[in-house]
Amino acid sequence: MILMGVEVTLLIFDSYSLKEKRSVIKSILRRTENRHHLSAAEVGDMEMHNKSVLGFGIVSNNRTLCRKRLEAVLSEIEANYEVEILDYNWLEA
């Protein structure tokens, strides 16, 4: 069994309140969970209005599949949302 995750730090453009930030974050989380069948949550920088840390995790028996799905999530976030990925950390167990 492979447990793999990625912790992503995002800079959210044109977010001037926590309400605007939550709207973007909830959209990202719902869309990635539904399209890629993985777990997602906001795990840090919850009180900053233009920055967030999101965590994505997946369980499988294939390491390559896990990595590809998580990389697809990163690509989709940058392509579909007005955010910049500042940093990401891979986690594996």
From TrEMBL:
Entry-linked InterPro entries: DUF503, TT1725-like_sf
PANTHER family from the UniProt entry: DUF503 DOMAIN-CONTAINING PROTEIN, HYPOTHETICAL CYTOSOLIC PROTEIN
The name this protein goes by in its record: YlxP-like protein
Organism: Alkalibacterium kapii
Lineage: Bacteria, Bacillati, Bacillota, Bacilli, Lactobacillales
